[in-house]
Structure formats: C-alpha cells, structure tokens
Amino acid sequence: MTREEVSGLSNAERVSKPGLDTPASPATLRQAQDDARPAQEPQDIERSLEAILVVADEPQSLVSLATALNAPVPAVRQSIERLVADYDGLSGGPRRGFELREVGGGWRLYVRADHDELVRDFVLTQNPSKLSQAALETLAVIAYKQPISRGSIASIRAVNVDSVVRTLLGRGLITEAFTDSETGAIHYATTDLLLTQLGINSLDELPLISPLLEDGAEGFDDVFSSR
User: I want to staple 9 with a disulfide (CB 3.0 to 4.6 A). Which of 13, 34, 53, 171 is the partner?
Assistant: First the structure.
C-alpha cells in the first residue's frame, strides 16, 4: 500500500490494517473506537438515562452517565436537558410530580417540594413497622454526628449503609442537609419528625453517649474511630 493510499484511510481502517508504517497512538485507537461505535437514537439514550437515574442513590455526573451508556457526553447532556424540560411540562406534556435536578455536579431524580409532605405521610402509613437494629444504629450515628456523609457513617459502622440510609430517608427521619462542593458527597441530618418521635424539643436533649461507651472517658469520637 502506498503512502498516498495510507493517508486516505479513516482512523478505523488505519488501525484495522496491520503492517502500515505509522503506528496507531492511544488517541487514534480511541478515536477509531468512537468512529466504529453505532450512534444511539436520542430516545434510546433518554430511556437508558431514566433506568439508571431511577435507581441511583447519589447524583450522577455527565461523564459517569456517558460511560455507563457508552455514549458521547454531548449527547447525554442534550438528553438530560430534554428530560428536564419533559418533567417540568415544557415539552407539551404534564408537569411531573418529580424532577431531574443537578446537585453537587451530578444529576438525580427528586420528588418535587410540593409533594414532600404527601410522600412523607404515605411512607409513614405504608411502613409502620419498627426500625431494624441496623437502622437504629445508623440513625444514632447520624443524630450524634450530623451533618455526616454516607461514607463516614459506613466507616463508623464498618458496614455498607446504603439501604439503611434509604430506609431512614423514606421514613422521613433524616434528610439531605447539603452536598459537599468538592467531593459531591451528600451529608445527612435528622429531621423534626425524629424529635417528635423521641418526644424531645431539640437535639440538645439527646441523652449523653459517654455513659453508654466501654470507656466514657475516651468519648464518642475516640471509640468509634478505632473500629
């Protein structure tokens, strides 16, 4: 093959033909893969995004979503914008009871604030059972250490707490206080509902934790940090 013929090849063809005098760089290989990747229809990307976001516990960045869908970031960004408009009723359809919101550099589905009280009452009515021991322990950690991230809770309890945190959120006992601007980690705090359930007026009325520890002199932080 002549040099003129080689120069006329596409990236994908250049990589697929062995023996060419120009080695393929990593950037060329990635570009060849992008060229060979079949383009996804916008509707397919939007359906896939909905499937991921409906089960996501944390805000998802555009890059992570694009990686999961094996789709270009610009295409994912455009699909996100269309979904936001659709849920907000700006595309000719009804305004949904949930919204797609950007928080901490990522995207996640949230119940609209208009329906917070309704959803809380529904969850409490549908789930009147007692909290598990794991949920009670996690709730205690949040109550005494708030605001605290999910990772810090897991570190203190030395177990995965994702499902327990979802349960406590669903019961309305904790809430998302804020999202760390640097790490994107959501920090959790207790709600007024917890105070009502405990029969106290403020967190200052929580019982002291020191007498319940193995050695009260070491304090709460020392004991749990050693676990």
Answer: 13
Asked which of 82, 111, 140 is the last residue of a domain, the reply is 111
Strand order, beta sheet including 174-179:
148-149, 186-190, 174-179
Question: Which of residues 111, 126, 160 is at a domain's end?
Answer: 111
User: How many domains is the chain built from?
Assistant: 3
Give residue-wise pLDDT tens across range 204-219: 888 887 776 665 455 5
Contact 173, 132 (CB under 8 A): no
pLDDT digits (tens, 9 = 90+) for 53-95: 998 878 899 999 999 999 999 999 999 999 999 999 998 889 9
- 3-state secondary structure at position 94: coil
> Same domain, yes or no, for 119 and 212?
yes
Question: Does 106 lie in the same domain as 88?
Answer: yes
For residues 150 and 59, the answer to whether their CB atoms sit within 8 Å is no
Task: Count each helix (H run) and each strand (E run) in the chain, helices first.
Answer: 12, 5
Report how far residue 15's alpha carbon sits from residue 108's, in angstroms, rounded to the nearest whole number. Answer: 39
For residue 129, the enclosing domain spans: 114-225
**Two structure tokens written together for 93:** 């359809």
